[in-house]
Amino acid sequence: TRQAGGNSIVRYQEAMRLNLQRRRVLETELARALEKGELHVVFQPLVDLKDRRLLGVEALMRWQNDALGDISPAEFISIAEESGLIVEFGTWIMKQAMKEAMAWSEPLRLAINVSPLQFTAPDFVDAIQDALSETGFSPHFLDLELTESLFVDDRLQLDTTIDALKQMGCSLALDDFGTGYSSLGYIPRFPFSKIKIDKSFIDQVCDEGPQAAIVSSVVSLAGIFKMKVVAEGIETEEQEEKLRALGCDIGQGYLFGKPIRADGIAQLLKTAA
Ligand code: C2E
Ligand code: CA
Ligand code: CA
Ligand code: CA
């Protein structure tokens, strides 16, 4: 009826207004998050799928605000990207993660997410160089996780930056593979050492559907270009076994460990030793 339709439009408009309002509050708060010390870094284990040995960690950003509580990266990272704050945040987390990793009893590979805006900023290579020399972290243990969206725009001049990074000894990983609706043409053009299959493909890998076949074709593709395959979001032993059988090399997921603070990783190393 007209009555009900009218009400649902009002409800929709009200929801939109609240959405915008929250967004505006988040934007304002996020702009001061770094100086207020509200950001921190957590680390999630990456394990060898052969024997579950700890190979490295992925650094993930967290934001805790007094008034708003914990805000998930799914919500604040996109705001940070749109406002440009991600460049500053990205530089901060890189240095912070390296500094904290240096306290561990043995070196672990460190994967860091780099958003396209940060990667294409003119001083990106300098910022990495700076973080490495200030912390003493080895570039040979660094994996920069880049998403497909960076490679969609072929007007971007990426080669100089990528050459400089390779020269320094850093590695590149292709993150969230398969979620970006892009062609595969860019893959041979760039020296990725790892390809990460997004959790959305892993969730149903044990079901009858096409997910296992998709994983299997990513493994073949990776083989052609000598890339290691990382499966993200593994939650069950059944998935672990399936992914191992399909030929994935590295696993990440709650089954092996949730993202934790640096001291938790130090503890893991101590118990494993
Ligand atoms: P991502 O790069 O794909 O990171 C993996 C995400 O999957 C993380 O979410 C991680 O906590 C989650 N995850 C891993 N294993 C499991 C699992 O077994 N089950 C479930 N349910 N989730 C799992 P998180 O930390 O919420 O981060 C979300 C996204 O935010 C990241 O996705 C990444 O795109 C972005 N992000 C996080 N930190 C940073 C950062 O420092 N810089 C940039 N540019 N982006 C970041
Ligand atoms: Ca990632
Ligand atoms: Ca990602
Ligand atoms: Ca992902």
UniProtKB/TrEMBL annotation:
Domain EAL as annotated: residue spans: 23-273
Top-level division of the source organism's lineage: Bacteria
Protein name, per record: EAL domain-containing protein
Organism listed in the record: Roseibium polysiphoniae
Portion held of the full protein: 655 to 927 of 927
